[in-house]
Write a structure and sequence with these properties.
This protein has 17 helices and 14 strands. It has 417 residues and is of the alpha/beta class. Helix 4 packs across helix 5. It comes from Marinobacter excellens LAMA 842.
């Protein structure tokens, strides 16, 4: 009954969802491309298919090393990557080119999921992290398609939310074949909300197995050469409500280091222009990457291109990871940590609870409360190269110490295939 009501509500909302998609497509035309995928109308794929679903950019990047390992195994199957966002698919295409197949994930109505499964006929569905869609999972169960939650995490707040709708959640949770949880608290919460204990395993976070391809390293070195010896800090994956604070912090950084450069990377492309205008109105000299403007005379460099954040982290002396000065829950701090540079975040990092716990335990990250706090910490490290180097080495050591989850996940997938 609960799933019937859920499906009915999704069907009733679908016209409004499509109208919203069309409206958003005014500023992001890619959203209107292949919109029929979202109703399950995707090209048929012959032969065995491994379906990997990653909701957006962060999950797509996290899935990258796993997909590379699966491709290297020559399993004789097509890998289909889906996402809910245009930026997620753009990131996947940038990472894999024509080595995998791409589609938008269907909206979670029974009809859209059935059409999608009929055309794709996957052997398994691998969901990155915790995208739990009731019809997607239940329809896969009916088609005998195993469902794996990989790199799964579940906050206490989310667990309590599922417990409040236990009648809807429990049958879905029982349909999940394997949960590869990041940590024991995550595993315990999945068991609590109805996943069979025998289907839950703690594998660790695959994000510690961060992979920096050689071409990214070379591109980072080339870009850093264009910046010269000036101090450079980067604010990655920033959100509305943070950019003002970060620009305020940069004002204070410039007071101590007049040649410093801030590279700012908004999370969502539709905000690129607004951030550029904001920085200019505050009196900063701004250069935009999309317009091939030189950062030489700039104080703020707006990275308004897609799929280059990892490269830009490598060209920086230290990094702030966004989504954390507001209650967004933060983004992945392991990407800059893997470059061996100091990492800062705001206080709101509940989406990456386990990762931050390990970084904090070994002094591989510093949490700041706002612009003044961040600027003070940046100025101290810019003034002390030895301490900056030691800080970055601690961050990298945490990454290296926790590697290995990816091997366990890939072996688990192949074993269950």
């Amino acid at each position: 009954m609960f799933q019937f009501i859920y499906s009915l509500l999704i069907r009733l909302a679908l016209p409004f969802i499509l109208i919203r998609l069309w409206w958003q497509g005014r500023k992001a035309p890619a959203l209107r491309q292949d919109w029929q995928h979202r109703l399950g109308h995707v090209p048929s794929i012959p032969g065995p298919v491994i379906w990997v679903h990653a909701v957006s950019v962060g999950e797509t990047i996290a899935a990258g090393p796993m997909v590379r390992r699966l491709l290297a195994r020559n399993l004789g199957a097509t890998i289909l990557m889906t996402a809910m966002t245009d930026t997620g698919l753009a990131q996947a295409r940038k990472m894999f080119g024509n080595r995998v197949t791409y589609a938008y994930a269907p909206y979670d109505t029974p009809g859209a999921i059935r059409r999608f499964l009929r055309r794709v006929n996957p052997r398994i569905l691998v969901i990155m992290e915790t995208e739990i869609w009731p019809n997607m999972i239940s329809q896969c169960r009916r088609k005998n398609v195993p469902v794996f939650l990989i790199n799964a995490r579940l906050s206490e707040r989310s667990a309590r939310g599922y417990e409040r709708v236990r009648g809807l959640a429990a049958p879905i949770m029982k349909s999940i074949t394997w949960v590869a949880a990041q940590a024991e608290p995550d595993a315990e919460r999945f068991r609590r909300i109805g996943v069979a204990a025998s289907h839950v395993e703690v594998t660790g976070s695959v994000k510690f197995d961060v992979d920096i391809p050689e071409d990214v390293r070379l591109a980072s070195e080339r870009f850093r050469t264009t910046l010269g010896p000036r101090p450079v800090w980067i604010a990655g994956s920033t959100h509305s409500g943070e950019d003002e604070q970060l620009l305020q912090a940069h004002r204070l950084v410039l007071a101590g280091h007049s040649d410093a450069l801030l590279i700012i990377v908004p999370r969502h492309p539709e905000r690129f222009d607004a951030v550029a205008v904001m920085a200019q109105e505050l009196g900063f000299q701004v250069a935009r990457r999309s317009q091939a403007q030189s950062a030489g005379g700039a104080q703020v460099y707006l990275a308004d291109t897609m799929g280059e954040l990892m490269m830009l982290y490598g060209a920086s002396d230290l990094a702030f990871v966004g989504g954390s000065l507001i209650e967004r829950g933060g983004h992945n701090p392991l990407e800059p940590a893997a470059w061996g540079i100091p990492v800062f975040s705001g206080p709101h990092v509940f989406n990456f609870e386990t990762i931050y716990e390990r970084l904090l335990a070994d002094q591989g990250v510093q949490l700041v409360q706002g612009a003044d706090d961040l600027a003070r910490a940046i100025n101290l490290l810019f003034a002390n190269p030895a301490e900056r180097k030691a800080y970055g080495e601690r961050a990298l050591a945490v990454v290296n110490k926790n590697r290995g989850a990816l091997d366990r996940v890939v072996e688990g997938i192949i074993e269950r295939l």
